[in-house]
């Protein structure tokens, strides 16, 4: 197997905490530029735009890098916390 970033990330596992996402996007009409940037910046591809131009998140696969938390900290559009114990990403090292 080639050693691409995608192949390395595929080695990680993720345990979904059904019904309790650890990141939420607050309801909005028009997303800020910061929030819109997350569609392209999130390394796990968790953010997307819906047909109304609003930004949504599916936190499954989140690597807990904290980028969205930092980028959107001044806009108040994201509620961010770590997953509950036993849930979230399981990194494979080596
Ligand atoms: S913490 Fe990182 S991986 Fe998780 S949703 Fe935010 S930007 Fe994406």
From TrEMBL:
Keywords: Electron transport, Iron, Iron-sulfur, Metal-binding, Nitrogen fixation, Transport
Keyword check for NADP: no
Any matching Pfam family: Fer4_ETF_QO
MF terms (GO), sorted A to Z: iron ion binding; iron-sulfur cluster binding
Gene3D superfamilies: 3.30.70.20
SUPFAM superfamilies: 4Fe-4S ferredoxins
Lineage top rank: taxon: Bacteria
Signal peptide: none
Keyword Coiled coil in record: no
4Fe-4S ferredoxin-type domain residues: 53-83
Family: To ferredoxins from P.putida and C.tartarivorum, ferredoxin I from A.vinelandii, ferredoxin II from D.desulfuricans.
Function: Could be a 3Fe-4S cluster-containing protein.
Protein name per Swiss-Prot or TrEMBL: Ferredoxin-like protein
Taxonomic source organism: Acetobacter peroxydans
